[in-house]
Design goal:
Alpha-Beta Plaits, two-stranded antiparallel ribbon, 4 iron, 4 sulfur cluster binding, metal ion binding, Fe-S_Ferredoxin, iron-sulfur, oxidoreductase activity
């Protein structure tokens, strides 16, 4: 998963991640626990999350 420069660090994506695979330190970052399921994508208010095809 890629979190682009639009990220504002709100943490909404992290709160919906069932794996706890997103950490927010200024900006969100996917950890190695990320399985690229895409569940967090619709919760990003600035469309900063991209899941590889």
């Amino acid at each position: 998963m890629k979190i682009n420069d639009n990220c504002v660090g709100c943490g909404q994506c992290a709160s919906f991640c069932k794996k706890g695979a997103i950490e927010v330190r200024g900006r969100a970052r996917a950890t190695d626990a990320c399985v690229e399921c895409g569940l967090c994508v619709p919760y990003c208010p600035v469309k900063a999350i991209e899941v590889p095809a």
